[in-house]
Every structure is written in C-alpha cells, then in structure tokens.
Write a structure and sequence with these properties.
Layout (H helix, E strand, L loop, with lengths): L5 E4 L2 E4 L9 H7 L18 E7 L5 E7 L12 E3 L1 H4 L7 H8 L9 H12 L7 H6 L34 H10 L8 H5 L10 E5 L2 E5 L3 H10 L4 E3 L5 H6 L7 E4 L9 E3 L3 E5 L4 H8 L4 H6 L6 H4 L4 H6 L7 H7 L3 E6 L2 E6 L4 E3 L2 E2 L6 E8 L5 E7 L10 E10 L2 E10 L6 E2 L1 H7 L6 H12 L12 H19 L2 H4 L2
Parallel strand pairs: 1-5, 7-9, 8-9
Antiparallel strand pairs: 1-2, 3-4, 3-5, 6-7, 10-11, 11-16, 12-13, 12-16, 14-15, 17-18, 18-19, 19-20
The structure holds flavin-adenine dinucleotide and FE2/S2 (inorganic) cluster (FES) (2 copies).
Organism: Pedococcus aerophilus
Pfam family, one: CO_deh_flav_C
InterPro entries: 2Fe-2S-bd, 2Fe-2S-bd_dom_sf, 2Fe-2S_ferredoxin-like_sf, 2Fe-2S_ferredoxin-type, 2Fe2S_fd_BS, Beta-grasp_dom_sf, CO_DH_flav_C, CO_DH_flav_C_dom_sf
Length: 493
C-alpha cells in the first residue's frame, strides 16, 4: 500500500500503512495509543467509540460530526480529519465539554465518557445551535431550532445528539446537566474556526490486505466501472450495516468499494414535481436539506436509530440491504418514491413498490448501485410514521408504518400506506388503501379499514414480536392516525 494514505488524527498524520481493509477506525485509533475511545459493543449501540470527523456542510463550510468509530473501516477515513477525546483538551486545560462533565459529576467509571465527550462536543459546535432566547429573536426557525423542553436545553443543546451513547453507572441527569450548562464556543476556538473551512476532499484510496481490497473511486463512472469488473462487490456507504457484518458476523469483503463520498451520490435537488436525494447523503444531511418539506420523513428521522447512526446511515444503504425491517421503505412506499439505479449501461428508474422481489432480494443487479431516491411532489396532507419497537430510540422495528393520505371535503381522495416487518419484503397495504379511498374519513370507515389492515401481510413470530401482536399493531395504527388527524365532525363527536 502506498504510504500517502493517512488519516489526520488530532492534527497529526497517522499513516494507514499495513492496515487491513477490514480494520475498523476504532481498532486503528487504539492501536495508535489513542485509547480514549472504547469498544463497548462493536455494533453501533453504545457510543463508547464515538469520535468526531470533519464533514462537508454546504459551500465552503464543514461540520464536526460524531460517528461510531467501531463501524467505519479505517480505510474509509483516508485523507480525513478525525478528533478523539484526547485531541479536544488536556488534563491541564480541559475542553469546555470535558470541564462540564467533570464538575457536574457526569463520569464515574469513565468507560463511556470519551464517547459522550465527542458526541457532546459535536453538538457544542453545531453551527445553528443557539440559546433559546437568541433563537426566538433571530430568524431561527425550522426543524433544528427548538424551545427548551425535556429534550432541548436553554442553550439550544439537542439531547438527541447523545441518543447513541449509553452510560451504565453515572445516570443520565449529571450528563444532561453538563450538556445544558455549555455556553457557545469561545472566540478563537480552533474547532469552531475549523468549521468555516471546507472538509477534506475524499481521497482516491486503494488498500490491500489479507482480508481483501478496499477501493474508493474518485467519481461515479470509476465506481461503475469497478462494479462492472467486480459484480457483487460490497458497496460501503455509511457502513452502519456493513460494520456490524464485519465485527459481529466476521464477514470479510474480497472487494469493497467506498461510495460514501462520491459527488454524484451526494446530490440533493428540489424541483417543482420531485425531490431527488443522493443515495450516499447521510440521514442527518437529508434531514437538514429537506428543512421540513416532507413531514413524513421528519417523523421518521428521530425514530431511526440514534444521531450517531444517522450521521452515517444512508437511504442507499437502507434500501441496499433489501431488509424487510428497514425503516425508510415503509415511509418511501407511502411517498411513492422511485429508486434510481445506475450501471455502466446508464440509469434506470424503478418504483420502490416494484423494487423488492423477495426476502432480501431486489431488482437491483449485481453491477448496479442505487444513485438516488426520488420523491414526487406535492406530498399528501396527512402523513405519519409509526414505529413499534421495544425502545423509543436506537431500536429495530417490530412493525413500521408509513401513512400518506389526502382527505378532501371529508373524503379520502388518496391513501398510500407502506408497511415494514409484516412480510418477507416491505409492502404497500393495498387492501387497506382500497378500503379507504373514496370513503368518508369517519370513525366507522376507519374502524372497518383497520380490520382490513390487521390482515395485511404475513407477519411472523420472532424474538421481537409475535405475529398476532404485529397484526394488532397494524390495525391500531390506523385508528391512532384517525384519532390524531380527524376533525370533530369526522370523528363523529
Ligand atoms: C445501532 C444500529 C441501529 C440501527 N437502527 C436502525 C433503524 O432504526 N432503522 C433502520 O432501518 N435501520 C437501522 N439500522 C441499520 C442501518 O443503520 C441502516 O440500514 C442504514 O440505512 C444503512 O446505511 P449505510 O449507508 O450505513 O449502509 P452500509 O452499511 O454502508 O451498506 C449496507 C448495505 O447496502 C449496500 N449499499 C450501500 N449503499 C448502496 C447503494 N448506494 N446502492 C446499492 N447498495 C448499497 C452495501 O453494499 C451493503 O450491502 C441500525 C444499525 C445499527 C448499527
Ligand atoms: S463500540 Fe459500541 S457503538 Fe461502537
Ligand atoms: S461512567 Fe461508567 S459507563 Fe458511564
């Protein structure tokens, strides 16, 4: 491997020489003596491995972004800038986040602490974080500006930034106190200043080792040519699924293609009749880009894993797995999304409703990748995403439901309902849609349609939920949607 492959860690270049493509960023950092970041689970669940990476943030700016180092191949950080807890402050001169955690008792055994520090520091530096009073008087509005509530501090700190970090001994109150005590970065803060400059460009990378080859092409034509040469190569985007396969299942890729920074997969375009979302934009980036334009997705995002995972996870990866329990398909089915597939032969477009063909099977050929997802505009007036899972955050769905309904003059003009977790593939609830369309949006009609919905799909028993429970959840979801959205006349009150 050529020695120019290196990662800038806490301002020091760390060569990737001799690093196997299957080595994750956490093991790479710890092998350098940077043992602050810990391995708690190696599957993205605990955040003990959290580090900050400088990511693009539109124009010439960058954004410190917290990610799970245990999931990302070290090779994917070639040319990138990483900051670990060691790089933020020193025992003599603590970083504001470290100081608040120390003085407010936010750390006991300390195992989780460096990970919390990095997630908290990324939120500390979030450019649009501002105190509530300032947000109220400036033009601060939209999905990232909040009143102080049980999840947002007076200082604008969004506790969801810590939703991917677990602490087993301190208790979360002192950690929350530390987060809410943070002020704005001081004048001249080097990390805040770094954000006004662009993130490093993605380097062309080729790393060979005993487990295989990791290659990051420079652009889409190169990526498609590599895929044509190595059909079935593993495409690595955010690596939030792939990293688990590597760490927990011990799977190795003879050939992996890094696609997370391909410019053609990171486009975002809002047109008159559709929004096109690049397949390699992270969910956090899509959420910011949409600025509330698609309310159904705004309901989905906070329920999808944790902020740490959403900082890596992509639409392309969620659809690329073909999983029947991914959370984006039920929402995207309800939104009548189209998948744009690319190969050396060019693009082809497939309605998502025709994309899944069987358990983890799709129409995507081995020489194709997902370039983008297109959502038609305007979106329906009634939208909801219901996720039934054992935990509120950072859990896989037992059942997920996306609703998009148009009700005009009290009559359901259009109903699109996507379901996950109740069949071998994500499906549309076609019988329920038919039971609703053209009918008044009334309690009686909805009760009858809810019975139909309870019979949709072919739910199975597994460790997450029983089949009868899944069916019951389908029916009650429609009743809940009606109760939350109908007018008093429609409810019959
Ligand atoms: C702790 C944890 C919590 C999670 N919670 C949720 C959750 O709440 N809901 C949920 O739906 N998922 C969840 N996931 C799963 C995962 O985060 C998502 O599936 C995510 O969208 C994967 O995106 P990625 O970019 O990380 O994919 P990667 O891991 O990079 O890739 C996953 C697969 O998709 C393929 N792929 C990637 N990009 C493309 C593309 N553009 N074209 C074709 N194929 C592609 C890859 O080859 C690979 O096989 C969770 C994962 C973890 C670790
Ligand atoms: S080690 Fe638990 S999330 Fe990485
Ligand atoms: S301080 Fe012990 S796990 Fe958090």
């Amino acid at each position: 491997m050529a020695s120019q492959h290196e990662v800038m860690v806490n301002g020091t270049a760390r060569p990737l020489t001799g690093v196997d493509p299957a080595t994750n960023a956490l093991d790479f950092l710890r092998a350098q003596g940077l043992t602050g970041a810990k391995e708690g689970c190696a599957e993205g669940e605990c955040g003990a491995c959290s580090v900050m990476v400088a990511r693009p943030d539109g124009g010439d700016a960058s954004r410190w972004t917290a990610v799970n180092a245990c999931l990302i191949p070290a090779a994917a950080l070639d040319g990138q800038e990483v900051v670990t807890a060691e790089g933020l402050g020193t025992p003599e001169e603590l970083h504001p986040v470290q100081r608040e955690m120390a003085v407010r008792g936010g750390s006991q055994c300390g195992y989780c602490t460096p990970g919390f520090i990095c997630s908290m520091a990324a939120e500390f530096y979030r450019g649009d974080r501002q105190p509530v009073a300032a947000a109220a008087t400036s033009n601060g509005s939209g999905p990232h500006t909040h009143e102080a509530d049980h999840e947002h501090g007076e200082n604008g700190f969004d506790l969801h930034a810590l939703s991917g970090n677990l602490c087993r001994c301190t208790g979360y109150r002192p950690i929350r106190d530390a987060a809410y005590a943070l002020e704005q970065p001081a004048e001249g803060d080097p990390f805040a200043e770094r954000s006004s400059r662009p993130a490093p460009v993605a380097a062309h990378t080729r790393l060979e080792g005993a487990s295989g080859i990791f290659e990051r092409p420079a652009d889409l034509p190169q990526a498609l040519a590599l895929l044509a040469e190595h059909p079935g190569a593993v495409l690595v985007a955010g690596s939030t699924d792939w990293g688990v396969e590597v760490n927990i299942r011990g799977i190795r890729a003879p050939y992996a293609i890094g696609i997370d920074r391909l410019p053609e997969l990171r486009t975002f375009h809002v047109g008159d009749d559709s929004v096109e979302i690049g397949a390699a934009l992270t969910l956090s980036e899509v959420e910011r880009g949409l600025e509330g334009r698609i309310p159904l997705l705004d309901q989905l995002f906070p329920q999808f894993a944790s902020r740490l995972i959403r900082n890596g996870a992509t639409f392309g990866g969620n659809l690329g797995t073909g999983s029947p329990i991914g959370d984006t398909p039920p929402a995207l089915l309800a939104l009548e999304a189209v998948v744009v597939l690319a190969s050396v032969d060019g693009d082809r477009e497939v309605p998502l409703a025709d994309y899944f063909t069987g358990y983890r099977q799709t129409v995507k050929r081995d020489d194709e990748l997902i370039r983008a997802v297109r959502i038609p505009l305007p979106v329906s007036g009634i939208a909801a995403f219901h996720k039934i899972a054992k935990r509120r955050f950072d859990d896989i769905s037992s059942v997920a439901i996306g609703f998009a309904l148009d009700v005009q003059d009290g009559v359901v003009a259009k109903a699109r309902i996507g379901l996950g977790g109740v069949a071998a593939t994500p499906i549309r609830a076609l019988a329920t849609e038919a039971a609703l369309e053209g009918q008044p949006w009334t309690t009686d009609v909805v009760r009858a349609a809810a019975e139909v919905m309870g019979r949709e799909g072919t739910p199975l028993d597994d460790h997450r939920a029983s089949a009868p429970y899944r069916s019951a959840m389908l029916g009650t979801a429609l009743l809940k949607l009606h109760a939350q959205t109908a007018t008093p006349q429609e409810v019959g009150a």
